[in-house]
Write a sequence for this structure.
């Protein structure tokens, strides 16, 4: 049993690696193969995987995780401003800073559970968002967002090193290969693969945690925390550890975001951003391994692609129809695309939560079961 | 345990599926080529793509919608449609109504959500995915500055839309970014003499300021300009951009001893704060023996419409107004009105003009290459676009032109006739040296052609 599940974990992991590496090719037909969106997939994938360690395993619903993403971004941009455009110090500091913040916030918030825990984390995140906007403007540059200026110190910046984020000269925004196949262009970007390495590591660590005794303990907390307490086990260290780990994942995601695009704005700490990662996890399937990544990709795809469909695009899509019908269809579709993409996403979210309680992964599993049952039936008949 | 088994089953099935898909992709014919661009997104084929990045949601959504209308109109005119609009009155005759450099103009749109992150994501997808060779838009200086920085890195031209912060062409100026709109300093320089004439030289001002780059620099500019006329500034209070209710900020004004309230707010913010101020009866108060007055340094017709009768008699400045009677303004109001049924706002005007200026610079440079286009725009003198003779200064990529001081009309005749032009402040009066302290600390850097 143990060895079998191990091979299956290996298979899952290999499958994940394949999907991530082939991402630019696989996503080209749906128009998602360009650096910014691919990077967002990986970054929010990491964010959601980390969130799932807390929410999916222990059942603690944090409504303030975007705060850790935000401090991660600020820490990274400060490293660019003070040291150089090299991404490594930035990432290290963003994870460390997010870890420290999550220790403090986690220590206080975890005194309560359930809705009170959610509200506490939400309050902390909103507090940090508002501080970033008001008293902390010397550190955060307020609404304008923290940026890098030509007169920043950058003590370690070499004379001939690139003036954009890089890994020892390897520029993050370089597209090193643009193959075209079947009329679609795929863009292979340095930044995406840099994020992808971290995504794969993040996935592997989450998988190990999931299968470890520690992960078992977290699941036990989700199932019945009282019983654990009565048997004499103190659950606080476990929940705090899970909280800090997922906070560090968020910090890593924030740091990577700043590495791909060296600007940090306070709005990425707002409660809507915290809610977004909850949506991603639930949409994909909370508690599953692939679900959060899938959910993150789903939401980011909607945000990037649906929000850019305007009437001009709609008319060209429906141009094959007769004149009147064309305008009629465009008028109907119009409220659901462009600035109405939130509406479409909301409707889809409702449909998924109501009809697929396990999220997208739950849906796929059911589909797989149906498919298999059909197969074994026909085999039996033969 | 059951959970484990479930996971395993999924993975096995998926591995099979994925390997099948992988094989299919491997067999699919692939044509690899390295693009040897001289510059980012050099247009291929018979068309060129421009990116229009405007706020479609958030406090500046009204301005964004009007900007988008103007962009669509500009594209129509550039491609030879409609009545040609300002192409007929523009002093440069390089544009012929056959697109830009013979290429048909196409465009993509995006929503900035009035947030730097969203605006940059949207602009990035335009550059990386849609191949936009120029990005324009913004209805918030924070967003404009963020996107300008992005365009500098990516190597495309950024034609700023409605952005009024000194920083856009000051501290945060970039070689690839250009601004036609006026700025906080110019508002102060134009407004202060009129305010002195109307309200006297011994006023005490209280500032409410939107808490971001635009609010800060406008507050600084207005305070400096009015203090030079003898006014005192008693307090400067910052309000978050996302605020919708300003009552709590208005109440302290009454006890501060101030007799003028300066609202450094724009769009939905200004509509709300002005309405709150009027509801509190500020305008009926008499303080220090003088009537209490409200000033809105940056005005627009869209805001006046939102605030309704509250704007009557309130002074401010604006970049352009549809009631101007020069040939360019008349032509623009006519083609915009014919297409949409109402007159354009200043946001629509500046974005339309910016699109034309970019297209014209490409024609004159004979290429879309950002550095060549930038060189064609730098130091360019033009006329016939509604603001009189205008100069694009090479030192900071800021346009210099006359500034309008306007007042909320006491007896508006229509829904759009809400502002009257009190004074056209001549260009010389609002000009400043490129190294003025309010604009110091920036560096254009060198222009970037990108890949």
């Amino acid at each position: 049993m143990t060895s079998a599940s191990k091979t299956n974990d290996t298979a899952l992991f290999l499958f994940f690696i394949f999907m991530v590496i082939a991402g630019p090719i696989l996503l080209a037909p749906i128009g998602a193969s360009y650096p910014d969106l691919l990077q967002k997939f990986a970054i929010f994938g990491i964010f959601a995987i980390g969130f799932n360690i807390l929410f999916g395993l222990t059942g603690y619903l944090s409504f303030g995780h975007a705060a850790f993403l935000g401090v991660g971004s600020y820490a990274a941009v400060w490293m660019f401003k003070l040291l150089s455009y090299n991404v490594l110090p930035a990432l290290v500091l963003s994870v460390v800073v997010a870890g420290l913040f999550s220790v403090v916030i986690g220590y206080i918030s975890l005194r309560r559970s359930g809705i009170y825990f959610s509200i506490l984390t939400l309050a902390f995140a909103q507090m940090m968002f508002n501080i970033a906007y008001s008293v902390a403007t010397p550190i955060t540059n307020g609404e304008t967002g923290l940026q890098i200026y030509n007169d920043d110190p950058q003590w370690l910046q070499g004379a001939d090193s690139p003036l954009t984020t890089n890994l020892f000269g390897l520029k993050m925004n370089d597209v090193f290969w643009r193959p075209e196949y079947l009329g679609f262009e795929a863009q292979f970007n340095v930044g995406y693969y840099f994020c992808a390495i971290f995504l794969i590591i993040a996935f592997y660590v989450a998988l190990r945690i999931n299968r470890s005794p520690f992960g078992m303990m977290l699941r036990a907390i989700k199932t019945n925390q009282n019983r654990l307490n009565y048997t004499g086990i103190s659950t606080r260290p476990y929940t705090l550890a899970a909280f800090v780990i997922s906070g560090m994942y968020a910090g890593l995601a924030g740091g990577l975001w700043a590495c791909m695009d060296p600007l940090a704005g306070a709005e990425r700490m707002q409660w809507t951003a915290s809610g977004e990662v909850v949506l991603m996890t639930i949409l994909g399937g909370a508690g599953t391994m692939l679900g959060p990544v899938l959910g993150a990709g789903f939401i980011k795809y909607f945000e990037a692609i649906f929000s850019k469909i305007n009437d001009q695009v709609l008319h060209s899509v429906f141009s094959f129809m007769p004149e009147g019908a064309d305008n009629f269809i465009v008028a109907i579709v119009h409220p659901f695309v462009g600035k109405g993409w939130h509406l479409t996403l909301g409707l889809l979210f409702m449909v998924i939560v109501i009809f697929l309680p396990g999220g997208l992964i739950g849906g796929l599993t059911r589909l797989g079961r149906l498919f298999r049952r059909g197969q074994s039936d026909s085999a039996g008949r033969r | 345990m059951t959970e484990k088994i479930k996971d395993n089953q999924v993975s096995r099935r998926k591995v099979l599926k994925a390997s099948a898909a992988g094989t299919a992709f491997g067999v699919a014919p692939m044509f690899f080529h390295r693009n040897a661009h001289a510059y980012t997104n050099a247009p291929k084929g018979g068309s060129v793509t421009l990116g229009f990045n405007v706020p479609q949601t958030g406090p500046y959504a009204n301005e964004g919608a009007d900007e988008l209308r103007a962009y669509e109109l500009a594209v129509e005119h550039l491609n030879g449609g409609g009545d040609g609009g300002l192409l007929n009155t523009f002093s440069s005759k390089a544009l012929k109504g056959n697109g830009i450099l013979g290429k048909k103009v196409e465009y993509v749109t995006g929503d900035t959500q009035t947030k730097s992150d969203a605006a940059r994501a949207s602009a990035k997808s335009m550059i990386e995915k849609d191949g936009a060779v120029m990005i324009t838009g913004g209805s918030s200086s924070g967003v404009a500055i963020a996107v300008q920085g992005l365009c500098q890195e990516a190597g495309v031209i950024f034609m700023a839309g409605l952005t009024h912060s000194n920083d856009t062409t000051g501290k945060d100026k970039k070689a690839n970014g250009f601004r036609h709109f006026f700025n906080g300093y110019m508002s102060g320089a134009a407004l202060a003499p009129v305010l002195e004439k109307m309200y006297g030289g011994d006023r005490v001002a209280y500032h409410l300021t939107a808490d971001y780059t635009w609010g800060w620099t406008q507050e600084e500019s207005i305070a400096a300009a009015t203090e030079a006329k003898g006014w005192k500034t008693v307090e400067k209070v910052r309000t978050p951009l996302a605020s919708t209710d300003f009552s709590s900020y208005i109440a302290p004004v009454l006890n501060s001893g101030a007799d003028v309230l300066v609202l450094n707010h724009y769009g939905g913010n200004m509509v709300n704060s002005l309405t709150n101020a009027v509801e509190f009866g500020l305008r009926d108060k008499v303080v220090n023996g003088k009537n209490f007055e409200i000033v809105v340094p940056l005005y627009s017709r869209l805001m006046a419409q939102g605030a309704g009768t509250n704007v009557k008699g309130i002074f401010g400045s604006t970049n352009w107004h549809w009631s101007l009677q020069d040939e360019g303004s008349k032509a623009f109001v006519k083609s915009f009105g014919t297409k949409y049924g109402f007159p354009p706002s200043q946001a629509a005007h500046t974005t339309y003009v910016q699109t034309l200026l970019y297209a014209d610079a490409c024609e004159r440079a004979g290429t879309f290459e950002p550095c060549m286009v930038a060189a064609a725009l730098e130091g360019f003198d033009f006329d016939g676009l509604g603001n009189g003779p205008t100069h694009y200064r090479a030192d900071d990529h800021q346009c210099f032109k006359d500034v309008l001081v306007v007042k909320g009309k006491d007896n508006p005749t229509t829904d759009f006739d809400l502002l009257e032009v009190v004074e056209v402040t001549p260009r010389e009066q609002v000009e400043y040296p490129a190294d003025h302290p309010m604009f110091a600390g920036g560096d254009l850097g060198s222009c970037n052609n990108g890949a």
About this structure: Chain A has one domain: 2-270.
